[in-house]
């Protein structure tokens, strides 16, 4: 028997009971006694309070779009609660919440992963590229050295034309390290990545906004660091797949940091599309641990207007679209309004895909 099937009003909810009732609370589907019990339990579990607020905002945002059908609301609630229990043991005010610390977290995650690669797996193929696991680490050596060239370290030698090609730019480095012992390859990547983390941590807010035009894109250091966090997470998952490990999800605070930076850039990113969308507003809801809600005003639109599209998707899946590991058309999502605009926004999110 589930908690909401009890005949008597609930008073002291357990953590599991609270998790089970949170979705119904978010859409005002509880009676007064149960609602009061949930809100009292949230006061005792502050780590769920932020997620509860975001879940309620998400469902309220959908309700505000004109007369959403009941089936649509059911799908949204399922998206918010089914695949990953939202908010369990999460406090987005703690952990690696800054962009620099999100990058550092993913450097550490990849470093730990490389310790687990079996000796006979370094030559395994990586699905996304014509490379082995060893080659992919060498690719990252080149990218870390390139990144360091914007952080007052030694220059990275690359022609202006080659700099615009993220993969081709690293081929020479891959070839150099291909014949050397794996231990040396890993040690060099760690040396460069850890040096960048140390340097980034030493920068103040003003210095973090200095230019870092990776591959000609108009990044400051702060934005470039998020792109690098995305890349390291993505390539770590590439390696996990190649050695037979399950894919990994970054900590919720890191996911929120990456998702927020990505969604926040969409209003400008659409200008880079071959066919930018007409002026429009969008409401983006990313569910699950580390998700959130964002209102976008695309170029030419008026802030405060009703959204032309509401897009609801899982935050991890959205980030895998951003990194090019899920096609925009294949993302499991719920939309209300202009579904074609939702696809356009997802395509724009891939402007830094590696």
Which helices and strands appear, and what pairs or packs with what?
Elements: H1 15-26, H2 32-44, H3 46-64, H4 70-81, H5 99-116, E1 125-126, E2 131-132, H6 133-148, H7 160-163, H8 171-178, H9 182-201, H10 221-242, H11 252-269, E3 281-287, E4 292-297, E5 309-314, H12 315-322, E6 333-337, H13 339-349
Parallel strand pairs: 3-5
Antiparallel strand pairs: 1-2, 3-4, 5-6
Helix pairs in contact: 1-2, 1-3, 3-4, 5-9, 5-10, 5-11, 6-8, 6-9, 11-12
Could you explain the architecture of this structure?
With 354 residues, the protein is an alpha+beta fold. Among the domains are: 99-250, Four Helix Bundle (Hemerythrin (Met), subunit A); 259-352, SCP2 sterol-binding domain (Nonspecific Lipid-transfer Protein, Chain A), CATH 3.30.1050.10. The strands form two sheets. The protein has a four-stranded mixed β-sheet, sandwiched between helices. A two-stranded antiparallel sheet has the order 1-2. It has helices at 15-26, 32-44, 46-64, 70-81, 99-116, 133-148, 160-163, 171-178, 182-201, 221-242, 252-269, 315-322, 339-349, and strands at 125-126, 131-132, 281-287, 292-297, 309-314, 333-337.
The CATH homologous superfamily of the domain at 99-250: dinb family like domain
Strand content: 5-15%
Distance between the termini: 48 Å
Q: What is the CATH topology assignment of the domain at 99-250?
A: Four Helix Bundle (Hemerythrin (Met), subunit A)
Are there runs of 5+ residues with pLDDT below 50, and where? 1-10, 59-70, 79-91
What is the strand arrangement across the widest sheet? Answer: 4-3-5-6
